[in-house]
Each structure stands twice: as C-alpha cells, then as structure tokens.
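User:
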Amino acid sequence: MKKSRLSRVYLAVILALMYLPILLVIVYSFNQNRLSTSWGGFSLYWYGELFKDRALFGALFTSLILGILSSLFAALIGVLAASGMTRAKIPGAGAIEFLAILPIITPEIIMGMVSLAFFALLSLPFGMFTLVIAHTSMCIPYVFLLVKARLEGLDKSLLEAARDLGAGEWRAFYDIVIPLVMPAIVSGMLISFAMSFDDVIISIFVTGPHTNTLPVRIYTQLKVGVSPKINALCSLLFVLTAFLSLCSAVISGYGFRGKSKGGHDGGGASYE
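Assistant: Predicted structure:
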C-alpha cells in the first residue's frame, strides 16, 4: 500500500513539474496586464494583438512550410532506406544503421556548425533551401527507425505471395508493404514535423537574412523582452501539438489493432 501511494505521489509531482509551466502560460495568455507577475483580469486582448502581428504570422507560416517539406522528404528517404536495409544483405549493415541514426545523438550545435560549413563550402545561398536540407537530415532517423521496426515484423510470405500472383517488385512494395507500414510512416512524419517546427539551434546557423522561422524569431525577441502575445501564441501551438500527438497515437493504435485483427482472422495482413 505504501509503495502504491509513493508511486502516485511521484507521478503527481512529475506531472506537475511538466505541465504546471504550460498551464501558467495558457492562463496568463488571458491576462489583461502586460506583466505576467500580476493578474489584471480576464481578457482576449493579446490574442487580438497576436492576429494583427503579420511578421509573427509570417514566421509561423515559414515554420509550417519548413516542417511539412522536411517531414515529406524525411519520409521518402527514410522509407527507402529502411526498406533497403531490411531486404538487402549489406556487409557492415550495423555500422551503416549506426551512421543513419547518428544525427539523433549528435548535439544540435554540432549539426548546425557542420551544416553551416558545408553549405558555405558549396556556396549555397542561405534561406529556405538550406533550412529544408538541414532539417531533413535531422528528421530522417526518426522515420527510418519507426519504419524499419515495422518492416522487420512483417510476414515475408505476403510479398512472396504477391510475386507468385504476378506482381512486380515495385507493385508488391506499393500494394503490400506501404499500407502495412503506413502507421509508422505517419507517426515518423508527425515526429519529424514537430522536431523541425521546434528547432532553434540548427535554424540559426543555416537561415538567411530574408527567412525567419518562428522559434528563431521568439528567441531573438528575448533580448528586448517577450510580449504577452507570445503566451497566446504558445497556447495555440500547445493545442496544435496536443492534437498532432493525439492523431499520432490514434494512427499507431489503429495500426496495432489492424495487426491483431489480421492475426486473429488468419488470412489478413499479419505482421507476425
């Protein structure tokens, strides 16, 4: 009984430390007072001011486009890489896989400095193009790991049956493999989008003078003080993030239920 109570207290403390700052930001986004140190009454004033700030919404739009492009390219490269690593017998596959996931464990400041030096060496103009390349490189491992894990659990006889029925290699891959690993692909894309949208360090190194992402703009505003409009924006982004996380969980759960159903039916798309 004591152990159970301590576990509940520990869980409550952890949840409070994680979500209390977010809750305070949301509450003070409705504060009429400019200072967050005192409550001046409930108001939607800062939300109105937020929607009038074209520069802030321009940075938000840039971050959304960047996140979408990065997640799409990361999905394309990650799926092909995971498929190749799963099917082909490559010497030194373990070392290659380690190199593929290395960007996850490499500090972002190193990734940013390396990207800066690489793009400068190639004389590429800094802006959206360099941002997409750098963020795609950062996001590929997330898609790669999720898709590879799903591919390793697939029933190889499904592809063999498709080939026996006359399907070509790419046709079998498109009709059999892609639908079965789609939950992993979508989950990887959502994680990639979140990582790209949230990035500050790499973006600072590779962005151009005419391209400004939302996290970089907020970071630069810290020098002169953060406006309460940022509280309102953070509240809206938190709702968006929670929605994307819920979508990812639903999609992953749907894929798992489909796997269980296929196993029970005996003739469906079994992963086992």
